[in-house]
Amino acid sequence: MKPSLYFRPTNLQEALAALSENSWSVLAGGTDFYPARLGKALDENVLDISAIIGQEKISYTDGQWRLSLQATWSDLMADNRLPARFEGLKHAAREVGGVQIQNRATICGNLCNASPAADGIPNLLALNAQVELMSLQGKRILPIADFLEGNRRTLRRDDELVTALLVPDSGRPARSTFLKLGARKYLVISIVMVGAVLELSDDLRIVTARIAVGACSPVAQRLPLLEQDLIGRQLETSLADVVDERHLAPLAPIDDVRGTAEYRHDAVITLLQRSLMELSR
């Protein structure tokens, strides 16, 4: 068997050069990489990007927040500069394993893992985040909804590295939340998740609504009909009554060991209503 290669570059150019010359499995925090290979011989080349320096983990420039490839869930939770629109993503961060996992797992890595039940993805969709990809040929930027193709599948090319997530900030007042249903409170894979961001006018009317559901489709999905029906409404607890069956059209829940499709369908309705009630308080 051909021996596997291991490379740990210390700068971005070294990493991109390696990706242009060979096939690699990219290792960031490793919190999914190692468990997936437990008890198996390593038969792939590993590009460990954990030593890359020169990038600020979380930064803000020209109306846009940048979460770099090195930013972990703990970094996100600890950053007090982040505005209220990030509160839902911070709630999701607390659900990503235990503290040890949160200290190691990167936000970009969680996205690239592309699990339908990834806790971070619904709120990244609700934040209207984009993915920054770089190769020796240059940089391109994709909306997260386009970047994710399905379970463990993304549009990242073999010669590309996800270098950051970009989150626009309109400057308007905003509220956000994240709700998750699992078989227990902590350390559990989601049955259903809801991430939501509402941008508001000065008189607390909804200017923009972005709501996404995870673990009920091959990739997390926004609910455009619900978002449209919320725009212009006053922020009040009766918003929960807006949720309707037709809003769930983009979803495709399945039966599995964690729950039936019917159960997921009912749970989505409940979590959406609870999310809107929470955001109205």
Automatic annotation (TrEMBL):
| Flavoprotein in keyword set | yes
One family from Pfam that matches here is: FAD_binding_5
Q: Which residues form the FAD-binding PCMH-type domain?
A: 1-172
| Keywords annotated in UniProt | FAD, Flavoprotein, Oxidoreductase
Name of the protein this chain belongs to: FAD binding domain-containing protein
User: What organism does the record attribute this protein to?
Assistant: Dongia soli
